[in-house]
Amino acid sequence: EVYFKNLSKQKQKELMEKNGNNHKLRVCVATCNRADYSKLAPIMFGIKAEPQFFELDVVVLGSHLIDDYGNTYRMIEQDDFDIHTRLHTIVRGEDEAAMVESVGLALVKLPDVLNRLKPDIMIVHGDRFDALALATSAALMNIRILHIEGGEVSGTIDDSIRHAITKLAHYHVCCTRSAEQHLIAMCEDHDRILLAGCPSYDKLLSAKNKDYMSIISMWLGEDVKTRDYIVALQHPVTTDIKHSIKMFELTLDALISFNKRTLVLFPNVDAGSKEMVRVMRKKGIEHHPNFRAVKHVPFDQFIQLVAHAGCMIGNSSCGVREVGAFGTPVINLGTRQTGRETGENVLHVRDADTQDKILHALQLQFGKQYPCSKIYGDGNAVPRILKFLKSIDLKEPLQKKFCFPPVKDNISQDIDHILETQSALAVDLGGTNLRVAIVSMKGEIVKKYTQLNPKTYEDRLALILKMCVEAASEAVNVNCRILGVGISTGGRVNPREGIVLHSTKLIQEWSSVDLRTPISDALHLPVWVDNDGNCAALAERKFGHGKGIENFVTLITGTGIGGGIVHQHELIHGSSFCAAELGHIVVSLDGPECLCGSQGCIEAYASGIALQREAKKLHDDDLLLVEGMSMKEEEIVSAAHLIQAAKLGNTKAESILRTAGTALGLGVVNILHTVNPSLVILSGVLANHYVNAVKDVINRQALSSVKTVDVVVSNLADPALLGAASLVLDYTTRRIY
After folding, report:
1. Is residue 3 assigned to a domain?
2. pLDDT digits (tens, 9 = 90+) for 653-696
3. d(Cα 313, Cα 332) in Å, to the nearest integer?
4. Least C-beta-crowded within 10 Å: which of 198, 228, 350, 359?
């Protein structure tokens, strides 16, 4: 121990030599009100006790110098501190404008004081608007700042002011581990953060055993016993003054009804305090036999009063911080201290909107005794702070550095980051359902809406408009900026004009329909329209297996058979917008009839409708169901039943699926021989059932030069919507670099 003490003395000597021959650290402590002085006074006593290391200058401003708030500068004089400067900085009015004007007045007066004092470091406490003026002045005048109680979280504007001071301060003294972590998270240098505890605890933890009965008698009357009175301290909430005044009125009504001797302290100087004082006088608190209303109580005496009270009520930070050291019950009202760490002695009444609620809290808390809490300190904060001050090297650069967390890339210049919230409205017009989705630039379906597709043109268009308007409104809530609308629909489409030329039989009344004009007029957004097969190909090009592939073909295997062809990175539409009608490639001259009126089309063999047709034939002949299958009487026979029967060994079903797969494979071979893609993507609900059959046909029937083509199943969950979104995202975000 002796060794380490001598080593510490040697380090202090070296530091003093480093800072200049026996240079004393000139410390300016600025105090604005009775509350911050209770935290700063222990530090001031410590600095004063070591004159070989420090020179102390005391600046007093704010409500210390106002008679209505007790002229509390006198207690600083009683503590035998020389006040170097008194600054009258409070503009009366007790409203928001007065607070701003007070900050401005302090900023006008402080530069002259700091120029004369020339301190090495200024100590600033807490989260008051006066403290913000002090920190701003010191920072702009290149004076180092030590901030006490940074990193804490509470309610109202205090949080913002506290964190603003943190950003201006060079050194930080915090009271709790959580506050320290908050400061680190705010990118402050860990080496300049001291977890010391609250300086006021150095006095609190040694105060309770002193004579207290005379203090209680002086402030509350000789007939009052310990644990049989209440201390009330409530301040205005500057972000909701009207509500805080109402809450104070309810608190006083509850205290009157509770009928216990109560010491009421006047509120601080914040906006709304004047109205709160009016409420006190309106209710006759200053003349009520059960109440003692005072502007100020010296901190030493206030400690004794709260230590032996039956309860403390209000919204002061003192209630959730200092009073815990004594285990005195506390009722914390409203949101002013929301986020503060508290001991089990604190009962929160967040929504103190009725007298009964506050009265019930008083009944629950009054007279209890809780374990003492040391969340905010262990009584040794001042020695730690003095040691921290001595360690400050004045030759270090004044400009503070922030410790930002590491990032992978400089994403501020990354085009993907810039565009990640840009989105499209995607519309999918299917034979059964009408779907609208918000799709992000990365292909994420942020929000999706589904309705049954109406049978008539008028109803269908009205529903599209209604769903698009709803989705566009919701996009604001999910932080998406809609660039345009993309529509995927069955049938032949003129994408240049946004017109459905004619549709399949699955969508009725859907020929010669101008979709672009009414939707664009209603939403004031650009609109793109294309065939669902083409949209599937676009989805693969942007989000799926086709990304970066120059030539590929997409085949949709669902209710019908469709597809899209991408050649040299561009979608092929054809001279009359009929390219890639892949479902109508003829693979047999005398095959089954297709919905298009022809015979032997791929769609007549391999579509969901074709498989359903064959399943019905088997079912009508009692040849569909095998062991392990069952159907209800009213159940409609579907392609799924055929697939299930084949899996369970139904040879007839197996033969039908084999024929369908062969027909699809022959169609793919024709495509390979025509456009020679490097990739074939099978999409839709039947893709997994056909992929092996298609590969087999290619190996048997295709020319050797195209047999190396890759055949894969799409990994996109919703190619129709993603393709519709691609119409928008590909065109609206194109750039020339």
Report:
1. no
2. 999 999 999 999 999 999 999 999 999 999 988 999 999 999 99
3. 6
4. 350
Q: What is the DSSP string of 314-366?
A: ES-HHHHTGGGGGT--EEEETTTTTT----TTEEEETT--SHHHHHHHHHHHT
| Backbone φ and ψ of 431, nearest 5° | -65, -30
pLDDT tens track for 510-537: 788 898 999 998 888 899 999 999 999 9
Are 26 and 151 in the same domain?
A: yes
pLDDT at 362: 95
Answer yes or no: are the C-beta atoms of 229 and 309 closer than 8 Å: yes
Residue 532 falls in the annotated catalytic set: yes
- Binding site residues, as ranges? 492, 504, 532, 581, 584, 594, 596, 601, 603
**Strand pairing partners for 311?**
230
CA dist 500 and 496 (Å) reads 11
Q: Choose one of 513, 543, 573: the last residue of a domain.
A: 543
Binding residues for an N-acyl-D-mannosamine: 492, 504, 532, 581, 584, 603
Quote the percentage of the chain above a pLDDT of 70: 93
| pLDDT digit string, tens, across residues 234-257 | 999 888 889 999 999 999 999 999
Q: What pLDDT was estimated at residue 1?
A: 45
- Predicted structure pTM score: 0.54
Binding site residue list for Zn(2+): 584, 594, 596, 601
Per the residue annotation, which of 158, 270, 530, 532 is the catalytic one? Answer: 532
Quote the domain boundaries for residue 34.
Answer: 17-198+381-391
CA-CA distance, 594 to 603, in Å (whole number)?
Answer: 7
In this structure, what DSSP letter does residue 593 have? B
